[in-house]
Amino acid sequence: TNNENRYVRKDGSLVPLTWSARWDPRDKIRYGIARDATEKKKSENALKTSNERFEYVTKATSDIIWDWNLETNEVYYSDNIKNLFGHTPGYNRDNLPFYFEHVHPDDRERVVLYPDQVKYGTMINWMQEYRFRKANGEYAFVLDRGIVIRNEKGVGVRMIGAMQDISLMKEQELRVMHQNEQLMEIARINAH
Predict the structure, then answer these.
(1) Beta strand pairing status for 156-165 and 139-150?
(2) What's the predicted TM-score (pTM) here?
(3) Quick one: which of 34, 69, 71, 113 has the most CB atoms within 10 Å?
């Protein structure tokens, strides 16, 4: 079953076929059915192209791409979670404990989303800046964005997003703020 080959049509074009066959020992004959697999091949090629696109995008960016299945609570994290933060990429079976433990305690209440809140709420887009703990225990500043995918009844089924490490930008921001404070102090001293 499901053997594949190509046949040449009368016009010279190729058609992919999927075969199912069965041997009849009594009649000593093989019966076969061939189905045109053109649409199946188009779908397979489109899926392959889409998967390749996703893989190349995750390699082209330093962002961590994540995909949260709201029905199973399973989350996929791209390889960049290893590259940036030292955590294991791939699928995490139960996202909430992992995520909750790694969001800085001071940011948790503001940042952590719960499955029912996302599934049955009205949110479409989500964006937060917060601190996320790396595998080595240090915290990185991140900008995290997501979009909720809803079914025809409006119930959230997935949330897909990208987490960006903005630690360098935050350090520069803090440095500029500190320099401004020093300049204000100098100006205050000079004014007296």
Answers:
(1) antiparallel
(2) 0.69
(3) 113
3-class DSSP state for residue 147? strand
Maximum distance among all Cα pairs of the chain, rounded to whole angstroms: 112
120-164 pLDDT per residue, tens: 999 999 999 999 999 999 999 999 999 999 999 999 999 999 999
User: H or E element: which one contains 39?
Assistant: helix 38-60
pLDDT tens digit string along 51-80?
887 777 777 788 999 999 999 889 999 999
Q: Which residues contact 58 (CB under 8 A, 6 or more apart)?
A: 65, 78, 79, 80
Residue with tokens 């997501």: 146
Q: Cα–Cα distance between 25 and 28 in angstroms, integer?
A: 5
Which letter does DSSP use for residue 124 in this model?
Answer: -
Give the tokens for residue 92. Answer: 């995490």
Strands (DSSP E) contained in 70-110 are: 75-77, 90-92
